[in-house]
Amino acid sequence: MSAAAQQRQNQSAPEAEFAALFASVRAHLPGPAWIQGLRAEALAAFLSQGLPHKRLEHWKYTDFRARFAGGLALAQGGEGETPIDLFDGLNAHRVVLANGTVRSMPEADGLPDGVEIMRLAEALTTPALWLKPWLRTDHSALESLNLAFMTDGVLIRVGAGTRVTLPILLHNSLSQADVMAHTRSLVMLEEGAELTLIEIDDGAPPSQSFLNSVMTLSLEPGARLHHLRLVAAHGPSLLVRSDRAEVAQNARYETLVCASGAALARSELSVLLAEPGASFDLAGAYVASGEELNDITFTVTHGAPHTTSRMLVKGVAGGESRAAVQGGVIVKPDAQKSDSHQMARGILLSSRAEIDQKPELEIFADDVKCGHGAAIGALDGEQLFYLRSRGIPEAQARAMLIAAFIGEVIERLGAGDWQARVYAWLDLRLAAATGTT
Amino acid sequence: MLDIKDLHATVDGKEILKGLTLSIGAGQVHALMGPNGSGKSTLSYVLAGRDGYQVTSGSIAFRGRDLLAMKAEERAAQGILLAMQYPVEIPGVTAMNFLRTAVNAQARARGEPQIDAVAFLKRIRAVAQRLNINEDMLKRSLNVGFSGGEKKRNEVLQIAMLEPALAILDETDSGLDIDALKLVADGVNDMRSPERSFLVITHYQRLLDYIVPDKVHVLSAGRIVRSGGPDLARDLEAQGYEKVVSAA
Q: Hey, what domains does chain B have and what are their CATH numbers?
């Protein structure tokens, strides 16, 4: 097929809708002329690729296009129920993004020295040129779509040597029906800085909505980031996160992603270990039930020698749900002594559920350690009998075993006040997946 | 307490128990001995209600009720506890949490009040101390990284905490050195009472020097071929199964 024919085909119903929507709202989107130019360029980049679908290798298990109903307007902030904050009462610096717009954020004088938080909508009105490398039109189709329509988000900067004691909590919700929100955030940790970032993406729209969020994380030498991402939207939500992190010399990026509840949730993360000594740890947990589709996709690029990555993703799928875990590791030619290990484990709770796990390694250096493993099974019958033989009813025994299975992942990010909330949330999600309440 | 009549049971379609009859009175300790493959472990799993163990005929009455009609968890709540030969490792579930969940689940099934956390902790500490079980062990994942002796002591700890009417010890002595064996036997002897019965399954007479049974039965090819007093165990040890079984 010619490129032009491909583009025509891609520009069938949903893509044409995006193009028409862009034409009608572009004048109201924030940013001066050069930003507007970037937006138009990004839209063109999106249209040339179209919505991702199952014929693309990286979207093989997640046919976004097939699940996308279309007919969505651009969220304009405003009303719409804010879901209960799972971290209500947790001591943190809070930013609330609702329906694509920042609703509240900490006052500048409420933040510790060395920490700055700025709204994207504000940054875009008088954008500095340093923003430009962060607004790229050559990334994925949905990142381009995000760039074309981005309305708000936050820029977080932690200055050199600053250790932020309280977490920064970013609550991003989309609760209105038939809308989409494109939020974009940037997190910069300067040399030796340390931060705990907690994110929760949620919302329970009455009918389909689409939250398309993009985050760029930059860790300068020696920085440490502990990053919890709770992908907790439910009901007919479509939620796609595209996160990119770059980790410099001796910096460490640790993240825990927990996802459950949305009709479609894709948590995608690309990490570049750019300099020697950079390290990355990913823990992932998913609980899929009903007809949910849960996708955790990551790509780690070892771009320098002596870099380390560890990935563990575990989850359960019940009902008619589907889960996909795609783990890519790329070791560049000069990244000798790279050390990488990934493991994916899934438990099927029903015969109609499906879990696909795909590790993918591209290794161009010869002196490296790259391990991977994957296993899918059912609950262990001997463990189940052991618990039941002590008087624990079967449903409860199953729930205990599943919670223990997932617990290993949750513990990996280390302790924090957030942990009990995550466990409580997971208990509810597990009850939905196992049919016990 | 327990009345097994003409029990036939199959595993994977193969008949293992072939007409086993056994009666254990309240407060009694019975020992069940027999060579490998005679059906000792099968009997213990049939009693505990494990899936895959099919009873094809015969009956089991436990305290006057039909045991075979109950699920594994119901049997436990009614007072059956099988101390396993190979206790299962369960990563992520602490020994402490497991036991508290079990104690409360059984109480709920019997319509009794839940035990509060403080009272539970006090009781488990006292019992653990008697069995020389380190409290740290209880905070670790169940049986994960436990030594063979620790696993068996942990099984006895469960008997002490769950207070079953009938405890079945499936080769609890296997893999134990003499000190651990004494500890386990002391634990069991402490719990002997007119209301509690034991079925002690073992290969060797050694354990029965410490836990002295009221009756000894010899199982061979799925049936009990001889029964007698404690002396029978010593005869078996001296003469071997073959001779005792063929004389029967």
A: 2-247 (3.40.50.300)
